[in-house]
Amino acid sequence: MARVLSTAQERATVVIDAALRVFAEGGYRGTPVTAVAAAAGISPAYVFRLFPTKREVFIAALHECFDRIIDALGKAVRQGSSEEPAQVLEMMVGAYARLIADRHLLMLQVHALAASDEPEIRAALKAEQDRLVSFVAERSHADQPALQGFFARGQLCHMVAVLGIEGDQAPWARILADGLTH
Predict the structure, then answer these.
(1) How far apart, in whole angstroms, are the C-alpha atoms of residue 54 and residue 155?
(2) Are the C-beta atoms of 65 and 110 separated by less than 8 Å?
(3) Which of 16, 30, 135, 141 is disulfide-compatible with 26, CB 3.0–4.6 A?
(4) pLDDT for 27-47, tens place per residue?
(5) Which residues does UniProt assign to DNA binding (predicted)?
(6) Are 159 and 182 within 8 A, CB to CB?
(7) pTM of the model
(8) Spatial separation of the C-alpha atoms in residues 39 and 106, rounded to whole Å
(9) Pick from 25, 21, 160, 134: nearest CA to 73
(10) Are 89 and 151 within 8 A, CB to CB?
């Protein structure tokens, strides 16, 4: 049987997927490239051949994270039956709530915020936020206050999910989590 060699692009996809998971678990500063390589099943040297720095691996994972978010939101809108801005945003909320059930996507965003003191990571995160906000605005046709509310609700969902307080009966937790779906 002939051995099939994977292309650099296929390997890069495997590395990015592994990086998304591993960085989500350990953060940017706490995760060595060797951990990403081990999760991808390739050597650290090959990872560095594909991505010359750890920062580049992390940023590639961040781009993949936002690609998945935008894909999920777009799919929800395409499957929906309304073009009413408020309803389109609600479809997106539902899609995002289902998506962040995969804590890797959620935690990678949290870790990207934590590492945003690195100029290149901050720039990548800002570019991805620009892309996401533009996508949501274009697809929903919502006005600025509705868009701001949508993103504020998303950040609140992040905090509730990260803290694991959905269903918590403590008064402060109920105030924050009431009516949110994750």
Answers:
(1) 27
(2) no
(3) 30
(4) 999 999 999 999 999 999 999
(5) 32-51
(6) no
(7) 0.91
(8) 19
(9) 134
(10) no
Per-residue tokens: 101: 């059930």
Question: pLDDT below 70 — which residues of the chain?
Answer: 1-6, 181-182
Q: How far is CA 50 from the centre of its chain?
A: 22
User: How many whole angstroms separate alpha carbon 88 and alpha carbon 90?
Assistant: 5
Rg (CA), the chain: 18
Residues whose CB is less than 8 angstroms from the CB of residue 160 and which lie 6 or more positions away in sequence, other chains included: 166, 176, 177, 180, 182
How far apart are the C-alpha atoms of 87 and 90, rounded to whole Å? 5
Angle between the 54-79 and 119-140 helix axes, to the nearest 10 degrees?
A: 10
Helix, strand, or coil here: 141? coil
What domains sit in the chain, N to C, each tagged with a CATH number? Answer: 8-177 (1.10.357.10)
d(CA 132, CA 124): 12
- Helix 54-79 and helix 33-40, axial crossing angle in degrees, nearest 10: 50
Query: Would you state the structure tokens that stand for residue 86, as one six-digit string?
Result: 């408020």
Query: 125: which 2 tokens?
Result: 């995160």
